[in-house]
Amino acid sequence: MSTSATDAPKDPRIIDGNAIAAKVRAEVAEAVNKLKESGHRAPGIAVLLVGDRTDSSTYVRMKKQACEQVGFVFQLIQLPSTTSEEEIIQHVRKFNEDRSIHGILVQLPLPIHVNETRVLDEVHREKDVDGFHPLNIGQLAMKGYEPAFVSCTPKGCLELLLRENIPIAGKHAVVIGRSNIVGIPMSLLLLKQNATVTVCHSRTENLPELVKQADIVVAAIGRPLFVQKEWIKPGATIIDVGINSVPDASRKTGYRLVGDVDKEAYDVAGRYTPVPGGVGPMTVAMLLQNTLLAAQKWYARETASSS
Fold this sequence. Notes:
The chain has 307 residues and is α/β, with parallel strands linked by helices. It is built from 9 helices and 10 strands.
């Protein structure tokens, strides 16, 4: 009797982001129940969505569902794309002062007339559950300091490595991409784990040769199937942050999702994250973890000030 593709054994080298994210969500839900049993409110998260981009609306809907599943209070403010920068900032400031809101998320991108940096800078760093505030990124870079929060996607990547017991200390990690959201914080997180880190980008010369040296490759460049099999050292771990849509006439949607790494590279990898089902679910799971942490810190400060 033939075995169907769905019955085929799972590749043991896969780092299953869906399974690990489910464990994180269960841990968060349990912690939320303990907060409520001790007389505290459930963690509250506020999301600002400006405009009607389909992708942004989809991401917010996914975050809403995840937050409600673990028992958070979710508040959404949806504004038209013509909303002024000042009005958006006023909403952020209102959430900063709201004691029932422990985390604030500004869904990006914002409309072109809005200065994203200025808006994000207005989010109080103790409610910056996205980890985008310059103080949080700056403290991540400094010895002896700890940021209030770490950006969700790189934090999720590190969580995958740690929970899968993949060695980091002393290993050579190559991060492809230098964005403030993924590449830079990812390199700093790996450095804090005592990896030797090389950051590559669009101006890097001899990129394949540098990637070939890596024990851990984190691809976050936003170019579909960019990293080739020949670039990967046999046995290396691949963390593929990319999620790109490419045309595919065989699909009802007319497209399929692929990462920044060509799937043929999996043949030589020791471990790898698939796309989809790898890093993506961990980004939302880390948002939940950060929001829970924000609430726990808030209640700890309340207790300390009243004692």
